[in-house]
Input
Amino acid sequence: MCIHGGHRPNALNPAVVMPIVSSTTFLLDDVAYERMLSGHADEALIYTRIKNPSLDVVQVRIARLEGAERALVFASGMAAIHAAVMSVVKQGSVILAPREIYGSTWDLFANVLSRLGVEARFVDMSDLVAVEDEIERSKPAVVFAESISNPTLSVVDIGKIAALSRRASAACIVDATFATPINQQPLALGADLVVHSATKYMGGHSDLIGGVVAGSAERMKPVYRWMQLAGGCMDPHAAFLLDRGLKTLPLRMHAHQENALTIARHLERDRRVRQVYFPGLESHRSHSTAKSVLAGFGGMVSFVVEGGDAAALRFARGLKLALEASSLGGVETLVSLPFNTSHARMTTEQREQAGIQAGFVRLSIGIEDARDLIDDFDQALALSQNT
Ligand SMILES: *Cc1c(COP(=O)(O)O)cnc(C)c1O
Output
């Protein structure tokens, strides 16, 4: 599916790799005109915001990977999340979302949609009793979940969350960016829509910004309308890069998670490390859930270094191979510290309440040789303890 899904060369288009179609507009012949007039503009090649062959290829490929009837690509993960949510809510709707949620999604729900009369409530999604109670109490239109949370990497039981949502007639939307379609297909677990930041693992090379929404044809109809009218469509060049990235997604995920497990086990044995978070470790709170809802544990590892945030900073600045940068899911190992990036607006006490201890470090493990990474982390851990 990653390699042959979505595009087969044929007599009309013999290129083995789909060329980038950067044309914004297309010859309006009688067939196209007829389709447009009969209300099927989305099937006619008229204008790239509405339809483009480069986008079609990657959309079909992603739909297959997700087991979806339809997938759409967007200019960014946030454009995708926005369209997915807006396709469901109206004034007065409630969105139930995880307390430990991606920062910009939190900002969108808590501070932007709230101004339009859409209220967000936040719960610990690992606590199914709390989720059920909150669904009962607030009757949400949307239950928004993340397969694996950032940065403590808790794994949510998407099947159970989807069942609770269905019982309450709420649309269950899952952000599966950290899991990828290789490790989880939320639609098969009962979710109504799955969203991704394709910027991360799906693109996989830290060289494109993009997003994905996938679901049934019926659920996707209003998502498509939102994309057309809000205009968050993907650029054909980004679509080409994303399509290229998808071809190696299973290989990359395999390498990411193999490295991640090796490194998590190594860090767990290091006395300069207070705690390691990786769903593949028995010590992680979500290990058993992870085993039941994920086909692999992903490439993200977090840990807490002895000596607090100053030690974490010395660790990050002492790295020779891994790079201190935000974002994740690329072939290169990236390191970020919540205290100076995603959670910088909080005080140390607020971060601790949110489960982020002083000295917290998040690793997006790349596909380098694990021994090179371990050597790099070992020397940077030594530097972290120099006061
Ligand atoms: C990065 C990210 C997003 C936002 O995606 P962009 O492509 O940056 O707009 C949303 N959710 C998660 C889990 C992410 O990691």
